Amino acid sequence: MTFEGVVRVDGSFSGEIVSDDTLIIGEGAEVRAELDVATVVIYGVVYGNIRASNCVELHAPGHLVGNIVSPSLVVERGAAFDGNCRMGLADWQAAQSDARAGEAAAQLSYTEPEE
């Protein structure tokens, strides 16, 4: 999913979310996705890795199971975070570069057809 502006998810979503704007995961929502956004605000449950160019906010009773690369992280008391975090703009830019390289390699890969 891609979007512009602010988008709020209050149900279930699986896949990938990409935006240069703000994603809000509402309380009671369950998201199983790789997130590549500017800002993500989490009140629900997220299973997946996050690359945020601006900020990740994890508010109670939110729960994140995955890794974060972002220059800023806010974790409110009562929220849960199970994963690793790399902070700093250089880390985010490196993650972006790694993601683009992986996508390019995937597009160039060739699988021999089975006979």
Short key terms for the protein model shown above:
alpha/beta, globular, 115 residues, 1 helix, 48% strand
Beta-strand content bin? over 45%
Mean pLDDT: 87
The percent of residues in helical segments reads 10-25%
Which residues sit in consecutive blocks of at least 5 with pLDDT less than 50? Answer: 106-112
Total discrete domains: 1
What is the helix tally? 1
Describe the secondary structure blueprint for this structure.
Blueprint: E1 6-9, E2 12-18, E3 22-25, E4 30-42, E5 45-47, E6 50-58, E7 63-65, E8 68-70, E9 73-75, E10 80-82, E11 85-87, H1 89-108
Parallel strand pairs: 1-3, 2-4, 3-4, 4-5, 4-6, 5-7, 6-8, 6-9, 7-10, 8-11
Give a structural overview.
- The protein is an alpha/beta fold.
- The chain has one domain.
- It contains one helix and eleven strands, in the order βββββββββββα.
- It has one helix at residues 89-108; strands spanning 6-9, 12-18, 22-25, 30-42, 45-47, 50-58, 63-65, 68-70, 73-75, 80-82, 85-87.
- It is globular, with a radius of gyration of 15 Å.
- The N and C termini lie far apart (36 Å).
Summarize the structure.
The chain has 115 residues and is α/β, with parallel strands linked by helices. The chain has one helix and eleven strands.
